[in-house]
Amino acid sequence: DVKVTQSSRYLVKRTGEKVFLECVQDMDHENMFWYRQDPGLGLRLIYFSYDVKMKEKGDIPEGYSVSREKKERFSLILESASTNQTSMYLCASSFRPGRDQNTGELFFGEGSRLTVL
Amino acid sequence: DQQVKQNSPSLSVQEGRISILNCDYTNSMFDYFLWYKKYPAEGPTFLISISSIKDKNEDGRFTVFLNKSAKHLSLHIVPSQPGDSAVYFCAARGHGANSKLTFGKGITLSVRP
To answer: A39 — contact with chain B (CB < 8 Å)?
Structure first.
């Protein structure tokens, strides 16, 4: 079974703090993603990476950065947390679409619920 | 600009009846469509998918229909069960090895016992 593990299920931080959200996958997937889920807004893509040290901005990258130093690990960084970054953060990974006839289905972690006070 | 639209935020059906969840898209370059199911405090899990070269895909109680000319797809659940109560996300992907999934806003399905 594919395993996508997010380091923290629940975090509470203060405005201005630096926040690290870690994600590890064990399936040798090339692609990794960070989404946030908010009521009424669905899943919005923050950043994604299709290879080590590569990153691409998603739809809402402002206020976030990412790091992918190893294939299995993708980190989301909030340099200075703000209250509007209170959300559920979801990490996902996938094979590159087309590899071995794969369709690029995403596998998600359980999510990290971040509250910024 | 929302490329994947789930216009109904919620749906309530009786146990044993059919649930029909709708999804519309605007980008004709999308070539693959997926449905995900999400319970509270958990990550989404893959449910069923369909390629743009097909018009129907079935897996047990779940069937997805694709109408390319109308840019519309639907997920049918028959019969609906209380355990199906969850948020359902429609997603679409374009061509290319690095293309990303675009998600709709989700539909909350409630199946009444």
So the answer is: no
In chain A, which residue's Cα lies nearest the Cα of B36? A106
A101 pLDDT tier (thresholds 50, 70, 90): low
* Chain B hits for A103, Cβ within 8 Å: 32, 49, 51
Task: Give every CB contact of residue B69 below 8 A, 6+ residues apart in sequence.
Answer: none
**Consecutive sets of 10 residues in chain B, 113 residues long: mean pLDDT of each?**
88 97 93 93 92 94 97 97 96 77 93 95
**A39 pLDDT above the threshold of 80:** yes
- Characterize A84-106 residue by residue with b for buried, 16 or more Cβ atoms within 10 angstroms of its Cβ, and e for exposed: ebbbbbbbbbbbbbeeeeeebbb
**A113: nearest CA in chain B?**
B41
Residue B47 CB neighbour total at 10 angstroms: 18
Q: Does A89 touch chain B (CB under 8 A)?
A: no
> Are the beta carbons of B34 and A31 separated by less than 8 Å?
no
Q: What is the Cα–Cα distance from A100 to A98, expressed in whole angstroms?
A: 6
Higher pLDDT, A95 or B76: B76
CA B33-B38-B39 angle, to 5 degrees, is 165
Q: What is residue B82's three-state secondary structure?
A: helix
Question: Residue A17 carries which side chain, given as an amino acid letter?
Answer: E
